[in-house]
């Protein structure tokens, strides 16, 4: 039994017409298995609730400690000053026109 592929070479029986050996096929199957297994395994690991709580949340707390009330207050005051400056600038521009 033979069939034709886009490149023009014919496949006969179970042998490959493009020169791939049985070892090459095994390597391709192995690589495809790794390509499919790795993302599935990472997804499974990342969705373990215990791991997420123990590792990710703890790591987040280490990297970004909770804000202090004084820091938050300073930021709010800064935003308010910038907003007032912007409003005054727009008001002056509107009065000039």
TrEMBL record:
The name this protein goes by in its record: Protein PET100 homolog, mitochondrial
Membrane topology note: Single-pass membrane protein
Example of a GO MF term: unfolded protein binding
Cell cycle recorded as keyword: no
UniProt keywords, alphabetically: Membrane, Mitochondrion, Transit peptide, Transmembrane, Transmembrane helix
Top-level taxon: Eukaryota
One Gene Ontology term, aspect cellular component: mitochondrial inner membrane
One GO BP: mitochondrial respiratory chain complex IV assembly
Ranges annotated as spanning the membrane: none
Subcellular location(s) of the protein: Membrane; Mitochondrion membrane
Family, similarity comment: Belongs to the PET100 family.
Pfam families xrefs: Pet100
């Amino acid at each position: 039994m033979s069939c034709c592929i886009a490149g023009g070479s014919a496949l006969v029986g179970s042998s490959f017409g493009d020169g791939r050996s049985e070892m090459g096929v095994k390597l391709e199957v192995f690589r495809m298995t790794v390509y499919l297994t790795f993302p599935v395994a990472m997804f499974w690991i990342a969705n373990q609730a215990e791991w997420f709580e123990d590792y990710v949340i703890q790591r987040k707390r280490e990297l970004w400690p909770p804000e202090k009330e004084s820091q938050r207050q300073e930021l709010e005051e800064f935003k308010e000053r910038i907003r007032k400056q912007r409003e005054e600038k727009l008001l002056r521009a509107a009065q000039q026109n």
